[in-house]
Amino acid sequence: MTNASNANDLALLYRVGRGDRGAFSELYRLYQPRLYGYLRRLLPDPTTVEEVLDDVMLVVWKDARKFRGRSAMSTWIFGIAYRKAMTAIRSELRYQAPLDRSTDANAIADKTSPDIDWIRAALVHLSPDHRQVVELTYFSGFSYAEIAAIASCPINTVKTRMFHARRRLKVLLPALAGQAREHDREHA
Amino acid sequence: MNTRKLMPHEEAIELLPWLINDSLSGDERDTVLDHARSCVICRRETKALENLRDSVKRVISPAPIPAPDMRNINARIDALIHRQNLGRRWLSWIAEFCVSPWRIVFVAQTVLLVVLGTAVLWPTTRNAEFTTLTQSQDLADGHYLRVVFSPDLTHARLGVLLDDLGLAIVDGPSERGVYTLATQNSMAVAERDIALTHLSNHRSVLFAQPVDLGAAP
Fold first, then answer.
1. Does the complex come out with an ipTM higher than 0.85?
2. Domain span at residue B193?
């Protein structure tokens, strides 16, 4: 993020903190696509996504004054979204049958060609923490330091989570690893 | 000449996901790339991660993003502001009211009167709002048993059980399904205790407890 856009973000948030509804509307429109995409990839139900998104933005409205600028504003907002998403994911996991997940995992590993369903299913089989790290890295493009700030955990924890997520995905998606090997052979 | 310090393999391979999302700082990026140039495993891993990233992006990105709809969030903010304003109005009313010391004295006096009045008029003894298993319900002094039977115990089997132990139902069931039992000689504590042991071990008895009313043990 450039210094100029960070300064614009801060100015916008300052106005929100002073109760400026116009500034809040601007901020909402600025972040809604990114937040919606982020939450939609983590939560299966669009209605839940919209509820969680509104929860996040309500916290932004209430706590805008408390933001001290120690991180980028996007990191702060995604940190709120991360915690709200984790709560929603955990409450959804509570109602899922654990047997379904293990059965699907075997089916995924048996697949030999990549298609949309099995990659999606493989992601579902990651733990919420691991999935968040994969999501924040590959989709949202955050650095490991930013992810550590978003998830309120040490940098090494982020690296460890990513390491485990990669290992799990390799088991669940052997075809992708195979593709990489073939590619290597072709270009050797 | 390259003066950069070589990065250990474990450290480099950990950073590959952030190399491919282009978020490593310049120095860090160069160090990882230096390592990857001479490391087959890291090159292979980078390729695998790129494949994974591309596949994952292809899979999940098509979800359409709806146009921003702020009706719900605006309603929630309105409600929040309304609550905050209400609180502020109360505070300002209290602050305004307390400007005069006579008003404070008047309020303090009123509160004191209400507290004293309540203390004087409040009944000193109140009926218990719950009943306990040991509360007597017009039973004569003696040694009793309070028992809860399993709901699957039939009337016939209950009769046989009570006959075997020489017990009779003298009270109950209460709202909680508690029966009060007594031996034929309600003053004999030893007899009652033998019956208690049997009842406690019986599979159709959920709960059994001795109760002594007025009688010496």
1. no
2. 142-213
